[in-house]
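Render this sequence as a predicted structure.
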Amino acid sequence: MIQIEVQNVSFAYGSAATRKNVLSNISLSVQKGEFVAIVGPTGSGKSTLLQMFAGILAPDQGKILLDSKNINEKNVSRKWLCHKIGLAFQYPERQLFEETVIRDVMFGPKNLGYNDAEAEERARLVLKQMRITERCFYSSPFRLSGGEQRKVALAGILAMEPEILVLDEPAAGLDPAAKQGLMELLKERNEAGQTVIFVSHDMDEVATYAKRVIVLHEGRILQDDVPEVVFANHYSLEKIGLSVPFSARLRHHLCEMDILSTVAENGLKCDIMSVKEEVVTAFCRREAGHETN
């Protein structure tokens, strides 16, 4: 089922004299339950597109449809949109403001019309899902680590129970352990049926978690495919200034050395564990061949 549909969308910032095109005739759709990464160099339109998904920005041309409804029409309520899409800006912890963790997470549900008891019930449930210990519920969010603050900020969005989670650089600035923990939580949400769309500059992160990758360049879609296909064409990514996952680079070099089968024959496995398994398998085959000879 299509949840989001972008139809021929264009958008530009600035006045008529200084107008700069950010998105040019973009069209795409996102199915329910997808885990989508949007990547591209700085200024390619990634964050602008996310804000359009959430109805914060309206396209100059084209339409953004959510469950077949044009979200920029006047009869679309903000409450309905908040139930559909939860948007986390980059460094969402900077938006924390309440005296306690639980009050911060309750803020969103209360704004949607839930009473204190209902809002607290939602907040407690989501905080536990985000693995925030109960002893932190009544502490100041500003006493938590950066990774914990990030999870509290995301809990505030999840407490509104959006069907689609949209995140701009969700793991940016976190240490490796906190980054992995956060991405694993997003993976769990996706496996439970929630649609997840995220922007990232970390291609290893994208290769590990995303099931689909959309590459933007100069406001247009350059590629839109599974990670295996997108990262196989590493020259086109490097040409626009994007890095390639370590596992993809490793596999490419191993193929050039004729250690592994070619990408064309087998397809590219993007995560490092898959590459490791292929290396071991290739080595065992070679050893078996030597023994036969």
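Summary. The chain has a mean pLDDT of 87. Residues 11 and 255 are 42 Å apart (CA to CA).
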